[in-house]
Amino acid sequence: MDVGFLLVPLLAVASGFIAWVGNAVGRRVGKNRLSLFGLRPRTTAQIVTVVTGVFINLVTVGAVLAFSREARVALFELRQTLDGLEERAELLRAEIRALEQGDIALLRGQEVARGLLDGRRSAEEVRQAFFQLRQEAVEFATAQGAGRDPSGNVIVPDPPGLSWDAIERIVRQRQREVVVRLVSTKNVLAGSSVPVTVQVVNNDRVFRRGQVLAEAVLQPAPREAVRQALLSLAASAVRAAEGKILSAPGQRVAGPPFVILDLDSARRATDRVERSASPVRVRAVALQDAYTVGPLLVGFEAR
Q1: In sequence order, which residues have a C-beta less than 8 Å from that of residue 177 and are 6 or more positions away?
Q2: Best CA proximity match to 198, nearest among 122, 253, 257
Q3: C-alpha radius of gyration, the chain, whole number
Q4: Dihedrals phi, psi of 236, to nearest 5 degrees
Q5: Are 47 and 39 in contact (CB under 8 A)?
Q6: What are the start-end ranges of the E strands in 40-88?
Q7: Are 131 and 123 in contact (CB under 8 A)?
Q8: Cβ atoms of 213 and 207 closer than 8 Å
Q9: Alpha-carbon span 264 to 269, nearest angstrom
Q10: Which of the four, 9, 46, 71, 108, has the lowest number of CB atoms within 10 Å?
Q11: Could you report the average pLDDT of every consecutive run of 10 residues in the chain (303 residues)?
């Protein structure tokens, strides 16, 4: 529920109450001919009225500022906010121009490097492994056309408060093998440094060797039709891996899972279905244990 629906009636009631109190005080001052600081009673009553109006305004503004972050921003931070928006808009326009000219080195959400780190290792071993991973990220980013910042860094933590040491502690706390991914957080222009965030994911076994990922009964048909049917079966296997297998190295993290099709088994299954005199049950199976890091090797069994 919007806070305004509660704030407006409450302010109306509070303002009315304050006005009533101010009026009562003013009347009492005028009736009893009271005086403040030696002023005339009439002047004192006018001061009470003015103070009441000021108090109503202060209560109204204070309540709005207390309950509405947008109001606080508009009153105290509007100029900084507008300047920030204009700066971001200019950066976005520069990225669009660069993209049109083909000068983007890395895309937002693109994986810069990945590695397997074992949290059961010593702190020094984890530190060395993570350092090596960052070196690989630097080499990959440089090969894509990225440059260095004024401090000489090719990759920089994003947000700025992100600490490499903190990532190492997270890895050690997991006490297991994890996948560590360095991911670009923005479109990076050629010659610019790469802001990266770090993702730490448990490297679980998600598919066992021989596990059926998809299956279908295929009718004998010309070879091209059988191939299309197998491709459809492979697409079902890929969907089964979504959310379980990471995207391929160097690709965007939101991309499809890292799946490799075994062409030899696909060729054998195609031959079997094409030459069969009756329907053939074909299964897409994992040819080996598959872990989160990928890849998932998919083969076909025709029975």
Answers
A1: 116, 117, 118, 119, 202, 203
A2: 253
A3: 34
A4: -65, -35
A5: yes
A6: none
A7: no
A8: yes
A9: 9
A10: 9
A11: 55 64 64 59 68 68 64 59 70 64 83 96 95 96 92 91 92 95 92 94 96 94 93 94 95 94 94 92 96 96 89
